[in-house]
Amino acid sequence: MGTVHARSLEPLPSTGPDFGGLGEEAEFVEVEPEAKQEILENKDVVVQHVHFDGLGRTKDDIIICEIGDVFKAKNLIEVMRKSHEAREKLLRLGIFRQVDVLIDTCQGDDALPNGLDVTFEVTELRRLTGSYNTMVGNNEGSMVLGLKLPNLLGRAEKVTFQFSYGTKETSYGLSFFKPRPGNFERNFSVNLYKVTGQFPWSSLRETDRGVSAEYSFPIWKTSHTVKWEGVWRELGCLSRTASFAVRKESGHSLKSSLSHAMVIDSRNSSILPRRGALLKVNQELAGYTGGDVSFIKEDFELQLNKPLILDSVFSASLWGGMLVPIGEKPSSIADRFYLGGPTSVRGFSMHSIGPQSEGDYLGGEAYWAGGLHLYTPLPFRPGQGGFGELFRTHFFLNAGNLCNLNYGEGPKAHIRKLAEYIRWSYGAGIVLRLGNIARLELNYCIPMGVQGGDRICDGVQFGAGIRFL
Amino acid sequence: MSLVAEAFVSQIAATEPWPENATLYQQLKGEQILLSDNAASLAVQAFLQMCNLPVKVVCRANAEYMSPSGKVPFIHVGNQVVSELGPIVQFVKAKGHSLSDGLDEVQKAEMKAYMELVNNMLLTAELYLQWCDEATVGEVLEDVDQCCQALSQRLGTQPYFFNKQPTELDALVFGHLYTILTTQLTNDELSEKVKNYSNLLAFCRRIEQHYFEDRGKGRLS
């Protein structure tokens, strides 16, 4: 009988054996019938054996959990579909470089006439992979060393280590990740890190050394993460001319906080989605597990996308957040929110909206920001189907506000305060998609509603990043 | 600071009068501040009092990180931040207040020499006592004794080191001696050495009375 060899099918069609309309990114399937042709499609089959070739250090129990469904298939198409899903799950574990699926009829003494054998041929990732890069940036060079140990103990645990040694700053991060066998979305990770940052808009330098432990789990369609984090923060002035308000924040402090985040994401892609919505809600409580700083912080991010005629997409987004210090001490500049920049309200300089002192932006305890976008393919569609597909033209309207609140005044006063002196901007530009992670934008912006103290960047503005308003 | 920067700062500073809200920052009294830092802060406070320049003392836990040089005390005057006695004396001079203008060159050199003596001997003794507490304390006490003897001889029966008017040397000596006399330490020998010289005791008492109590500041803790 024929063999069916399935490779790199993504995604499988949801309706039956019609391989015609495959959707955007699917590749081909080859079916080679041999000698006797039979209509296999709707014939009842039983999956008798599932074989694995190429397992080394991977333990059996996590494999068994991922492929359990294959045995439940009733006909050939279901076998192919379930095998494909099992293959996806195995790749998601992050322990195999390659997974091939082979479906054949059963041979041997106990073979049923309609019995099938499914074989997964896997290649495990090497025990240790490393990378070494040098980076050169603004007056600074650094060496970056990365190490990854996938599938450390056989159950898809992963340890990653990154170390960056630079002329100005040194930073590192060590992380241990462990998923629950059979339930990859439930996972646990512990991180240890030191990061340094320089923020010229506030004349501030910050060094964070921290440890965090987090646990993620799904509830229906949402993904939740519960995290504890302890950070030793060191703040300092970036230059002799820093304002006194920033100088007063210099020194060491310890933050110990518990946080919870919820994410619902139904978009088809995180960069330039065509449809779907995203909702992220995050809350953080600091001070009740130790540390010097005590606050409760809430922030959310909402994005809606709708495809329109002629391949264009209409997108609306809304961000907001609030920081309420608990006790007598005022909030720290490292915890406050910032607004403005090519990834936030366009047309303003990076984080240069809101309360400031002598040209240093101090951030605010409450903010909101919104954007309306229309993305269209490039006019005349140059390079259709190829390079040109990575670009979009985009028309936008952004607005937002950032301020400090006096929490004794009550919610009506807060709403009024956040509604006065709204900064907004509009413009158009080109967006370039970089893989599935980042995007570049080049926009012409016209800022409006500028308040005294804000720094604007009207005209052409360039932005690169992962998260855009 | 480089010469050019100093000249620039002096020019800027000279144009503005001393504001009402000048502030001096030091660490928290009692649980945080060290012997040597306390002496330095007291010296600056005494100096500013002698110049008749009002200043408010604010205690903050992160004072040494706020300071541009990492050392306390520092003063925040208008838009300027200046730390340590030496630069503060310069800064105040640029604004037109000086205690040592009446001295001639020889006396100024002498004053500088005595200030170096105090910094080398008394400051070192304070640092030693707050960080170590061992057997070689004998040598340290010898140095302190010699320093006090030199100071006592120079002071003689005069009210201040350069007769009638106080100078920055008086402020510095006051800061260190007062701190040594009044701070509770595990080892009393340091303050005993200072107490041997009655004119130094009288000197401290006089400055405390005149510049701190009489001005309504109350007793220094």
UniProtKB/TrEMBL annotation, chain A:
<dbReference type="InterPro" id="IPR000184">
    <property type="entry name" value="Bac_surfAg_D15"/>
</dbReference>
<feature type="region of interest" description="Disordered">
    <location>
        <begin position="1"/>
        <end position="21"/>
    </location>
</feature>
<dbReference type="InterPro" id="IPR039910">
    <property type="entry name" value="D15-like"/>
</dbReference>
<dbReference type="GO" id="GO:0045040">
    <property type="term" value="P:protein insertion into mitochondrial outer membrane"/>
</dbReference>
<dbReference type="InterPro" id="IPR034746">
    <property type="entry name" value="POTRA"/>
</dbReference>
<dbReference type="Pfam" id="PF01103">
    <property type="entry name" value="Omp85"/>
</dbReference>
<dbReference type="GO" id="GO:0033108">
    <property type="term" value="P:mitochondrial respiratory chain complex assembly"/>
</dbReference>
<keyword id="KW-0496">Mitochondrion</keyword>
<dbReference type="GO" id="GO:0042407">
    <property type="term" value="P:cristae formation"/>
</dbReference>
<dbReference type="GO" id="GO:0030150">
    <property type="term" value="P:protein import into mitochondrial matrix"/>
</dbReference>
<keyword id="KW-1000">Mitochondrion outer membrane</keyword>
<feature type="domain" description="POTRA">
    <location>
        <begin position="45"/>
        <end position="125"/>
    </location>
</feature>
<dbReference type="GO" id="GO:0001401">
    <property type="term" value="C:SAM complex"/>
</dbReference>
<keyword id="KW-0812">Transmembrane</keyword>
<comment type="similarity">
    <text>Belongs to the SAM50/omp85 family.</text>
</comment>
<comment type="function">
    <text>Plays a crucial role in the maintenance of the structure of mitochondrial cristae and the proper assembly of the mitochondrial respiratory chain complexes. Required for the assembly of TOMM40 into the TOM complex.</text>
</comment>
<keyword id="KW-0472">Membrane</keyword>
<keyword id="KW-1134">Transmembrane beta strand</keyword>
<protein>
    <recommendedName>
        <fullName>Sorting and assembly machinery component 50 homolog</fullName>
    </recommendedName>
</protein>
UniProtKB/TrEMBL annotation, chain B:
<dbReference type="GO" id="GO:0001401">
    <property type="term" value="C:SAM complex"/>
</dbReference>
<feature type="domain" description="Thioredoxin-like fold">
    <location>
        <begin position="41"/>
        <end position="135"/>
    </location>
</feature>
<feature type="domain" description="Metaxin glutathione S-transferase">
    <location>
        <begin position="145"/>
        <end position="207"/>
    </location>
</feature>
<protein>
    <submittedName>
        <fullName>Metaxin-2 isoform X4</fullName>
    </submittedName>
</protein>
<dbReference type="InterPro" id="IPR050931">
    <property type="entry name" value="Mito_Protein_Transport_Metaxin"/>
</dbReference>
<dbReference type="Pfam" id="PF17172">
    <property type="entry name" value="GST_N_4"/>
</dbReference>
<dbReference type="GO" id="GO:0007005">
    <property type="term" value="P:mitochondrion organization"/>
</dbReference>
<dbReference type="Pfam" id="PF17171">
    <property type="entry name" value="GST_C_6"/>
</dbReference>
<dbReference type="InterPro" id="IPR036282">
    <property type="entry name" value="Glutathione-S-Trfase_C_sf"/>
</dbReference>
<dbReference type="InterPro" id="IPR033468">
    <property type="entry name" value="Metaxin_GST"/>
</dbReference>
<dbReference type="InterPro" id="IPR040079">
    <property type="entry name" value="Glutathione_S-Trfase"/>
</dbReference>
<dbReference type="InterPro" id="IPR012336">
    <property type="entry name" value="Thioredoxin-like_fold"/>
</dbReference>
